[in-house]
Amino acid sequence: MGPSANPALCSGLRKTVDVTPPFGFSSVDLGHEELHTTVLPFILIEMRTSHHQYPSRSSGLAAICTFSVGYILWVCWVHHVTGMWVYPFLEHIGPGARILFFGSTTILMNFLYLLGEVLNNYIWDTQRSMEEEKERPKLE
């Protein structure tokens, strides 16, 4: 069980999986990932039922990077104050690997933002095109 988990709150959500050694630890708590993954169907439903107006691409990516760096700084601050990592696997990797991990997650967040923007535009541009086709008078 990770140091950030509250057993009283998460007792029904916690599962453990054995991980083989090159990772240097024997189990990973999957409750956190399962909890965050269950939101995906609702995000997809919302994307289909509600058009989102995205800011300019540079503003959106700047916001994502700012959030990401802020979150990484918070994770490092919690480790500095408590001596424990919010994500226990960070204890088992070196500083260079942590930097690579944090950089990779920031890149992944940017990719997911762009994917959401592209999907939103595809879904709603397609729907707009279909509505315009219905409104046009048919030529015989």
Describe the fold and architecture.
A two-stranded antiparallel ribbon has the order 1-2. It folds into two domains: 1-38, no CATH class; 54-135, no CATH class. Strand 1 and strand 2 form a beta hairpin. It is built from five helices and two strands, in the order H-E-E-H-H-H-H. It has helices at residues 7-10, 31-37, 40-49, 57-82, 95-135; strands spanning 16-18, 27-29. Residues 5-27 have low confidence and may be disordered. The protein is mainly alpha-helical and 140 residues long. Helix content is 63%, strand content 4%. Helix 4 (57-82) runs antiparallel to helix 5. Its main location: membrane. InterPro entries: ADTRP_AIG1 (IPR006838). This is Androgen-induced gene 1 protein-like. Keywords: Membrane, Transmembrane, Transmembrane helix. It is a multi-pass membrane protein.
Briefly characterize the structure:
α4 runs antiparallel to α5.
Chart the SSEs and their pairings:
Elements lengths: L6 H4 L5 E3 L8 E3 L1 H7 L2 H10 L7 H26 L12 H41 L5
Antiparallel strand pairs: 1-2
Helix pairs in contact: 4-5
Shape: elongated
Tell me roughly what share of residues is in helical segments: 55-70%
Question: Helical element count?
Answer: 5
Flag low-confidence runs: 5-27
Order of strands across the main sheet = 1-2
Structural class by sheet pairing and helices: mainly alpha
Mean of pLDDT: 77
Specify Rg, calculated over alpha carbons: 21 Å
Number of strands: 2
What is the CA-CA span between the terminal residues? 70 Å
What is the domain tally? 2
What share of the residues does DSSP label as strand, in percent?
under 5%
Compressed to H and E, one letter per element, the order equals HEEHHHH
Q: Major β-sheet, in short?
A: 2 strands, antiparallel
